[in-house]
Amino acid sequence: MRGFYSKLDSSSVSTVVPLNLAVETEKAQALLQTFSTASLLASGGLGAFCFLVDPFLALPFIQEHLWLRAVLDNAVHGIIGLWSWAIVIGLKKKSDFYEVVLAGFLASIIDLDHFYMAGSWSLTKAVSLPRRPPLHCSSLIPVLSFSLRLIMWFCRLKDSWCSLPWMLFISLSSHHIRDGVRRGLWLWPFGNTAPISYWLYLSVTATLPHLCSVLMYLTGTRDMISSKHGIAIDV
Ligand SMILES: [Zn+2]
């Protein structure tokens, strides 16, 4: 049968046998996509970007200007966040661009907790806190992501929102790993790890999108992403 087309929903899955094949095919393709040449090149590019941008940020004229240093450092967090999410979802349609911008925004905005903790918009105070601000606690990442998933489930939000907890996960994780080169990870209530080695930071940053993709596949999130616009196949 050519041109078979169906929107996925619970009733059609149970009654249309070929659709099971369609779902499995789509799941396999979604997983394979994360290890495609384009995807691997994109993650290699992400690692290379980190490798090149950090010496640039260390240049004296940037280090001497506190605000410039903070803005550029925050922008790099944002770029890593949006780049990572772009690898996870692939850029196939217009709404994907909105998603990656949101991921970059999330990866950047958490640094505002420095100002919250300082109780001031003074950058000098924000970067000289006696302890780390709350959104830099890495133990919170699974808690926040899972809480968001529960909220979405309780509010019965549409499947088009299903990837939001994973977007939050990758945005926060990429930010924490980068900060971890200087200060380690804060794993409350266990304390802080030693600073992350630079090469470990590059490796984890480049592989995190693929890990996220596999976890999304294992938890079924990729099925929902794939099925939210229906599946067109030839059988
Ligand atoms: Zn930070």
TrEMBL record:
It comes from the Eukaryota. Its main location: membrane. The chain crosses the membrane at residues 40-62, 74-91, 100-121, 133-154, 198-218. One of its GO terms (cellular component) is membrane. The keyword Membrane applies. Keywords: Membrane, Transmembrane, Transmembrane helix. It is found in: Membrane. It is a multi-pass membrane protein. The keyword Protein biosynthesis does not apply. This is Transmembrane protein 267. It comes from Danionella cerebrum. The lineage of its organism: Eukaryota, Metazoa, Chordata, Craniata, Vertebrata.
